[in-house]
Amino acid sequence: MNKKSTEILVGLFVVLGALALLFLALKAANLASFTNGGDTYTVQARFDNIGGLKARAPVRSAGVSVGRVTNITLDAQTFQGVATMEIRKDIQFPKDSSAKILTAGLLGDQYIGIEPGGDTKNLANGDVITQTQSAVVLENLIGQFLFNKAADGGKDAPAQ
Question: Which residues are within 8 A (CB) of 55 and not within 5 positions of it... i.e. 6 or more apart?
């Protein structure tokens, strides 16, 4: 009987380990949202460049996660990227709030940061955030830096 109980304990340990790995994988992929989805309101923001922003990316304000990006589409008339976000109902942002696409760390994932404005009226379900700042694309910054250096003719280079 001792051998059988040991085998059962080892089997339970393996099952718990597999469940822990599944939970970790879902959290890493931003797929594990164990909150009720019914207590949110939807807003949109239009950006000239979405960059590497993906659906399910977090929406943050002051570093605190307040919602999630649910959908990213292209407006066929303006050719702007439209990010649809769900924000928790207990957090109300003023109508003149601004949205930026930011990067977590130097090369981390992108997310939307919301900076609250000073309006007395709040965003409602279906509203559009009009003040936006597009993503800063690292490749464009490097290209501009190299172009400016070439245009300067290397004046800042040390004499040899």
Answer: 69, 70, 71, 72
